Structure formats: structure tokens, C-alpha cells
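Suppose a colleague, Dr. K., hands you the sequence of a protein chain of 260 amino acids and asks what its three-dimensional shape might be. Before reaching for any lab equipment, you can write down a predicted structure in C-alpha cell form. Begin with the sequence itself:
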Amino acid sequence: MSDEKSNLPAISKQVTELVLAGSLSHAEQAFADAAEQHGDLAVAEVLQNIPPHVTALHMAGFDGGKLSLATLLVPPKAWADSLAYIAATWNEDMIEDDPERIAEGLFNHIHGVVFGTEDEERRRELLQEASATDHGATVFAIVFSLAPKEMLEVAGEVISKGQYITAQSSSDSDVVPLAVALAQASEDGWDRALFELFPEFRHSADLADAEYSDDPDEEEPSVLQRSTKELLYRLRKQVPSTRSASARGGRRNLGTGIFS
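The predicted structure, expressed as C-alpha cells, is then:
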């Protein structure tokens, strides 16, 4: 095992360089080779050790129909840390023109990681770690903004049924099972995401009594909700810098150069 561990720094360096160079397929092959030679735990340890912005960049390239070993093996804390950087992978024009498409891609990313395992303990740890930070709350709020009415329904179910809640809703939204899983895994994480989406509320019991209306003719919405676009920009502003800014450096556009 010591010989295997001695190879991990070199693998971590190789993966980092490949991802930053844009060679995601080669980085994925490096993960596959590591898994074949040293086992899945070696891949998990590499993912634990590489910088979180590298993990974010790599996993962002495998959302949707493509599958990455990182999706299945990323440690919960490493994944939670990487979510802080995921907004830096988004095109600002797309945030303006098609925010729902970005939110759907983010949902696919989260769904793939969380439900890519049948291990309930791992699933719970993933949700707990991801929802424990400010950026995590915003990430879940972005996804929940795709189905705000259903989120209020789930809030009511959580209040009335607690841990016995099921993923039943008057809607067939795919977001509901994720919301239920989060509520079951972390009451605090669920509340934080809800209050990020519905900022005028501070108690989930108040949300449970709220009535959502999507009538476009209403002058004022009955429930104040942050839009998907607003939440995307809120997450973009939370992206940490991967290097110290020069004291005399010119002002950079939000999120640019984050992976350089």
C-alpha cells in the first residue's frame, strides 16, 4: 500500500495539469488507469488532494449523458469544496440569455453525484457536506428555483411528516426527489437552501403556510422568490480566487481567469 501511496502525488499532478490544459478525456483516462492499478480508493484520494477548482472544472465537463469516475468516487468534502468554483465554468452570456439551461445542467451534475450511488450513507454525507456552506445553499437554491411551487409543497410536507416525508408531489418535477433527499439528510441544509430561494422567510413553518402563485397577471408575487438568474450571479460572486490578486493588477471580469 505504501508503494501505491507513493504514486498518488504524481497522479494528482498529472490529473491537475491535464485538466487545466483542457484535456479532460486524458485526465479521465488517468483516473481509469489509477483505478485499475491501485483501486477505487486511490482515485478518491487523488480527488481529495487535487485543488477544488480542478475538480470543478473536470466534473463540469462530464455533466449530462457523460459519466466520469469522479462522479462516482469524489469524496463528499472534496465535492462540496468544488461546488464553490463551479460558477466559474459558466459563460456569462448564457447566464443572461438562458439561465434555466445552466440550472438544469447544475441539477444534472448534483443528481449524478448524489444518486450515482446506492450507498445511503455516502448519499447522506454528500448532501450534508454540500449544503453546509453558503455557496452550497446557493447551489441548491438555483436548482430549486426550477420548481418553486413544488419546493413550497415539500416544505409543508417536511413540517407535517418530518423524516417520514416521501418524494410525492402534485408535480412530476425531477427536482422533488432531490429536495426530499436533502431535507432527510440535513434539516439545516434544507432550511438554508429554502431561505436562499425565498429570502423574506426565516422559519420553514412560515414557508409551509405560504401560497405560491405563478399567475403572470399578478402585479406583486405572493411569495418573494429570487430568480434563477439572480441566484446564478450570487453564486458567481462567491467564487474564491485561486491566486492572490496583484495589488496593482487591473480589474478582472467576474469569474474570469479563475482556472489560470
